[in-house]
């Protein structure tokens, strides 16, 4: 079958067979259809040694001679079967396997076949050196499965068949149920509880006197009532009669509208397709709360439930339901300004974000009443902002927070402001927040912000005073969609996903509700909110029930539940006895309770009862319409209070939760800096700004920095070595940060390790690792020419092996034993740069001196792609895991981006070399990605430059002055806040990455002996520690390796000097040599 629907049907049948536990039939259909390769089943067959079944199952997907991967899969399986026969001393069976199964591979590799045949002559095949590690059968099968999985994932005939479609449980049953509902809706005399006896004929409600058509023979499908786990009874969703007023349901947005215009009962949002608002919510001054509960279709009760809900559901044990609500005031926070928006962290549920009316954002640990972070509104990059925003801020600089919200996983949060802007922060735990993105999103106020994930990439949704809704990529800030159609400012957005069907509800100030798909087809729903109120929509935590809360211009407020299937109000909640003095806000919790801030209190309803359940006054002191927010478990409730305070209400569970975190906080605070205070105390985090912002730079401005000229003013460690080496050509920390690996120009590797369990520090020296065998990791120099040699290496993510070259073959070394595992790619061409693929350690990119880039797959020993575009040797390679991009730099001063999945060229540009400098072909250029995986650093002997990847635009650069010595190397710190750079005159400069301004300069006199000239010895390569942002190492021309740290353990490079006896230590604070040298950042 080749049609898409036929394949879908097979997948549905596979799901049905699996649910019915018809395993043999299930796997037979998998094999015969060839649509889904069940790795779990295959794994079981291999571990059980059912070799015939293994090959039979495989044959439904691949053949031996399909490709190299398929051949290797079959070979590994048959080799294992052969070895097991030898291990059992069953030579007859082994010979049979050799002749029937393995001989087919002789035509591809005759030497290998001969070697396998020779195993028959050995008493124990483990005498063969390559098989000496073979243990028992069970272990060997498990090891082979690891290799097989990699081969299967790499095989183009299999890798797309490993993932079963994401289907809702019992999808086939659901479709049949929908069909039966549809058939029932067409019955001329529909019964309330139809009797469905068979699927073999169309359903039709008949008179009691009519005989029901019977099938010949017995059938297990014939039954008056399906079993509990079988097809849902057609009455489960209340089939209803056609109505002339019903329009095309929302379920038809993504398909061709049905020819018969009837609603489908079990669609996710079907009824919101109603074109006539009068069918839904009544209008006019005579409307009452009771009017909201009127049924809109014959046969459908007011208690019509969403699919999956149970009208008779009990919410717990007997007792007072209000006991489950947070009512006890346990904490009071002094915010300092009026809270306008709050949100609890989705994981650490005592962390509370607060936004205020003066633009302040705060992060509170409510258990300890500690304000961890406080930031006032500030435009991060005023130069990139629109002229309209600049003019608005000049006219009226006051800004308030309209909405603050955590991302779904709590790793970031977004802030919407009353003037144009949204700002996204990354959260690293504790008090560590860092700037991520700033977007000039709307003209006027940004009224709401929300997160959604309609594709694999997280998105941010905003709405604003300019009557639009916009969707942004949460990582890059790229605008993906703009939805226009409201006639008034958009008040709120509510994105949702139902059965992988993504949509957005939006509400506007004029009381309109619209719904949008992620396309450019306009609104799919145009509907009136109750009383044309300014409304907010919200789903229950389980995503099954939809509510809205709003207030009209006349102060009439409402909270209602919607029937998504029919687009009408299902239940209107009572309890708004007075006109509200502001727009009422609400929240839901525990899939049971609704709460709204109104009339100087918090009103609470049980979702199943329209009558008001209780009123919580929070011991008084609340504003007319307090802001409220539950934490995820519903054990805490944050409420805005008078005098710029926030009250934290708690249940018994909430009190225990806060005590737990408070105890942890007290333990941690014993080692915390003294600057941290409670009850409103703040921590200044302005020095952590990972977002790369191009600030307006004045090239003639004199900027001061700290200059270190004495060893006493820093912490320095020179690593000792008994091995004589030349210049250190390459240097890096291991990914664990506990060792340093160096490659000298004479092709020898040196590895220093700090003691196991100890952290890398300058306080004590690491030991040079030397195996007992005396082996040194020395690169293969076969075919190497000194004039072509460019030492390069790359370390695997798990630190277990290193790829390295010094002008000859590329060598693969075991980092534990120092043994050479293999050597490959004999020159020419010569490897000049090596980089591991971030998603697969078995793929490396190798830059060559002939200007090409080879994509090499280690597992199959094959170059699968060759990338061409440079005109001179490759000098740098870097992968972005986020953007699936490879960036390459060459001695031709060219920068090229490549797609790292399809290996296609994307964009290119040339580095601008200052006039008078030597030709680009004589100098190297390196590249390294920023921590955000969007920007990258380019290092050239004349300059440092930071680029944005997608547009390949230079956002910031620092250029050498005419009389300055060239840059030898540079690298980001591990948090990408600093750039460590070395120069040929021995000077080390530390730059702020956000503006490329010098923060600290270390002169050669601080780290070189007095009898050594910096002209003869200087650093040529820099490495940054992977966890400690202020520790870095330098490799010198004399073969030495130095580790640097600031003088004080908790200090940073460029901080003010420490104080001794009331007087500062004498560290010179110096401006650059002169403004004319142009040693300044350039925007």
Taking pLDDT < 50 over at least 5 consecutive residues as the criterion, the unreliable ranges are: 208-318, 666-702, 1057-1067, 1071-1078
Mean pLDDT equals: 81
Helix content: 10-25%
Report the structural category: alpha+beta
How would you characterize the largest beta sheet? 6 strands, mixed
Write out the strand line-up for the largest beta sheet, numbering strands in chain order: 51-52-53-54-29-60
E-strand count: 61
Query: End-to-end distance, in Å?
Result: 59 Å
Strand residue percentage? 25-35%
Shape: globular
InterPro entries: CTLH_C (IPR006595), LisH (IPR006594), Quinoprotein_ADH-like_sf (IPR011047), Topless_fam (IPR027728), Topless_Znf (IPR048419), TPL_SMU1_LisH-like (IPR054532), TPR1-like_2nd (IPR054080), WD40/YVTN_repeat-like_dom_sf (IPR015943)
WD repeats: 439-482, 584-615, 867-899
Region (Disordered): 306-326
Keywords: Repeat, WD repeat
SSE map:
Layout: H1 4-19, H2 23-33, H3 39-48, H4 51-58, H5 68-87, H6 91-102, H7 110-118, H8 137-154, H9 171-185, E1 328-334, E2 339-344, E3 351-356, E4 361-365, E5 370-375, H10 387-395, E6 401-406, E7 412-417, E8 421-427, E9 433-440, E10 446-452, E11 459-464, E12 468-473, E13 479-484, E14 490-498, E15 501-508, E16 512-516, E17 525-528, E18 534-539, E19 546-551, E20 557-563, E21 568-572, E22 586-589, E23 593-598, E24 601-606, E25 612-616, E26 628-630, E27 636-641, E28 645-650, H11 652-669, E29 705-708, E30 715-718, E31 728-733, E32 739-744, E33 749-753, E34 767-768, E35 792-795, E36 801-805, E37 810-814, E38 820-824, E39 831-837, E40 840-848, E41 852-857, E42 862-868, E43 874-880, E44 885-890, E45 894-899, E46 904-910, E47 925-929, E48 935-940, E49 943-948, E50 953-959, E51 967-972, E52 978-983, E53 988-992, E54 997-1002, E55 1019-1024, E56 1032-1036, E57 1041-1045, E58 1059-1060, E59 1063-1064, E60 1068-1070, E61 1081-1082
Helix pairs in contact: 1-2, 3-8, 5-6, 5-8
């Amino acid at each position: 079958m080749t049609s898409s629907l036929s394949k879908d049907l097979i997948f549905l049948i596979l799901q049905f067979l699996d649910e019915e536990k018809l395993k043999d039939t299930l796997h037979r259909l998998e094999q015969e259809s060839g649509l889904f390769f069940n790795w779990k089943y295959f794994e079981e067959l291999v571990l059980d040694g059912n070799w015939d079944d293994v090959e039979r199952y495989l044959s439904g997907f691949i053949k031996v001679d399909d490709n190299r991967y398929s051949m290797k899969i079959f070979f590994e399986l048959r080799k294992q079967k052969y070895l097991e026969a030898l291990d059992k001393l069953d030579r007859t069976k082994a010979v049979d396997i050799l002749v029937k199964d393995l001989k087919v591979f002789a035509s591809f590799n005759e030497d290998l076949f001969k070697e396998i045949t020779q195993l028959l002559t050995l008493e124990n095949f483990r005498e063969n050196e390559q098989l000496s590690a073979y243990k028992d059968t069970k272990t060997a099968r498990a090891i082979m499965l690891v290799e097989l999985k990699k081969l299967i994932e790499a095989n183009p005939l299999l890798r797309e068949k490993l993932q079963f479609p994401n289907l809702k449980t019992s999808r086939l049953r659901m479709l049949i149920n929908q069909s039966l509902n549809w058939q029932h809706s067409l019955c001329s005399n529909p019964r309330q509880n139809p009797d469905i006896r068979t699927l073999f004929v169309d359903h039709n409600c008949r008179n009691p006197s009519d005989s029901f058509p019977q099938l010949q023979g017995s059938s297990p499908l014939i039954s008056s009532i399906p079993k509990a786990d079988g097809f849902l009874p057609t009455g489960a969703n209340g089939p209803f009669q056609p109505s002339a007023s019903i329009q095309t349901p929302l379920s038809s947005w993504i398909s061709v509208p049905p020819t018969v215009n009837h609603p489908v009962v079990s669609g996710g949002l079907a009824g919101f397709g109603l074109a006539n608002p009068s069918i839904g919510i009544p209008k006019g001054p005579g409307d009452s709360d009771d009017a909201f509960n009127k049924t809109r279709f014959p046969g459908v009760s007011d208690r019509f439930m969403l699919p999956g809900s149970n009208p008779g559901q009990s919410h717990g044990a007997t007792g007072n339901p209000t006991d489950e609500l947070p009512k006890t005031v346990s904490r009071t926070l002094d915010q300092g300004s009026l809270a306008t928006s709050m949100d609890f962290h989705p994981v650490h549920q005592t962390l509370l974000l607060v936004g205020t009316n003066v633009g302040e954002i705060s992060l509170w640990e409510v258990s300890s009443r500690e304000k961890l972070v406080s930031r006032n509104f500030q435009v991060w990059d005023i130069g990139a902002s629109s002229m309209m925003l600049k003019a608005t801020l000049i006219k009226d600089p006051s800004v308030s927070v309209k909405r603050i919200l955590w991302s779904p996983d709590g790793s970031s949060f977004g802030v919407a402001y009353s003037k144009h802007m949204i700002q996204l922060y990354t959260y690293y735990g504790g008090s560590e927040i860092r700037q991520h993105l700033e977007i000039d999103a709307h003209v006027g106020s940004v009224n709401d912000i929300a997160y959604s994930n309609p594709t694999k990439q997280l998105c941010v949704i905003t709405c604003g005073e300019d009557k639009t809704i916009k969707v942004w990529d949460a990582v890059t800030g790229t605008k993906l969609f703009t939805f226009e159609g409201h006639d008034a400012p958009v008040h709120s957005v509510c994105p949702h996903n139902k059965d992988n069907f993504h949509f957005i509800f939006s509400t506007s100030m004029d009381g309109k509700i619209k719904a949008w798909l992620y396309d450019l087809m306009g609104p799919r729903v145009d509907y009136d909110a109750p009383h044309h109120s300014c409304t907010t929509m919200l789903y229950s935590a389980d995503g099954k029930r939809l509510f809205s809360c709003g207030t009209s211009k006349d102060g009439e407020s409402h909270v209602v539940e919607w029937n998504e299937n029919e687009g009408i109000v299902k239940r209107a909640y009572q309890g708004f006895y007075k006109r509200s003095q502001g727009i009422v806000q609400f929240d839901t919790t525990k899939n049971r309770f609704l709460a709204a801030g109104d009339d100087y209190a918090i009103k609470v309803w049980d979702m199943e009862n329209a009558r008001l359940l209780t009123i919580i006054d929070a011991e008084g002191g609340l504003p007319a319409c307090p802001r409220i927010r539950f934490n995820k478990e519903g054990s805490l409730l944050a409420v805005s209070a008078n005098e710029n305070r926030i009250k934290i209400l708690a249940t018994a569970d909430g009190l225990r939760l806060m005590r737990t975190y408070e105890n942890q906080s007290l333990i941690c605070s014993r080692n915390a800096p003294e600057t941290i205070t409670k009850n409103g105390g703040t921590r200044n985090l302005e020095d952590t700004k990972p977002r790369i912002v191009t600030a307006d730079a004045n090239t003639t401005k004199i900027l001061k920095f700290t200059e270190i000229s004495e060893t006493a003013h820093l912490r320095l460690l020179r690593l000792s070595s008994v091995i004589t080496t030349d210049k250190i050509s390459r240097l890096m920390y291991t990914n664990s940060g506990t060792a340093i690996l160096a490659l000298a120009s004479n092709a020898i590797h040196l590895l220093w390790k700090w003691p196991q369990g100890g952290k890398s520090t300058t306080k004590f020296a690491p030991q040079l690792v030397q195996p007992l065998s005396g082996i040194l990791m020395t690169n293969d120099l076969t075919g190497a020419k000194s004039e072509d040699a460019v030492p390069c290496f790359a370390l695997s993510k798990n630190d277990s092996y290193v790829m390295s070259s010094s002008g000859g073959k590329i060598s693969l070394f075991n980092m534990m034993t120092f043994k050479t595992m293999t050597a490959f790619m004999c020159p020419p061409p010569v490897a000049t740069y090596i980089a591991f693929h971030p998603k697969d350690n078995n793929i490396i990119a190798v830059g060559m001196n002939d200007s090409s880039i080879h994509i090499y797959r280690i597992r199959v020993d094959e170059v699968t792609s060759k990338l061409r575009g440079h005109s001179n040797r490759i000098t740098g390679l870097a992968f972005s895991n986020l953007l699936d991009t490879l960036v390459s730099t060459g001695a031709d001063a060219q920068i090229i981006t490549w797609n790292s999945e399809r290996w296609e060229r994307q964009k290119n540009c040339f580095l601008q070399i200052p006039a008078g400098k030597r030709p680009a072909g004589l100098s190297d250029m390196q590249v390294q990605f920023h921590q955000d995986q969007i920007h990258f650093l380019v290092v050239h002997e004349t300059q440092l430059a930071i680029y944005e990847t997608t547009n390949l635009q230079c956002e910031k650069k620092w250029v050498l002055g005419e009389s300055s010595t060239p840059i030898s190397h540079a690298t980001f710190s591990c948090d990408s806040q600093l750039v460590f750079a070395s120069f040929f005159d021995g000077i080390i400069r530390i730059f702020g990455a956000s503006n490329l301004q010098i923060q600290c300069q270390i002169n050669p006199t601080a780290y070189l002996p007095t009898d050594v000239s910096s002209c003869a010895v200087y650093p040529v390569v820099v490495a940054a520690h992977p966890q400690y942002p202020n520790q870095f190492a330098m490799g010198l021309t004399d073969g030495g390796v130095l580790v640097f740290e600031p003088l004080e353990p908790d200090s940073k490079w460029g901080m003010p000097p420490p104080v001794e006896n009331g007087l500062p230590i004498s560290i010179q604070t110096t401006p650059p040599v002169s403004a004319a040298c142009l040693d300044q950042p350039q925007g």
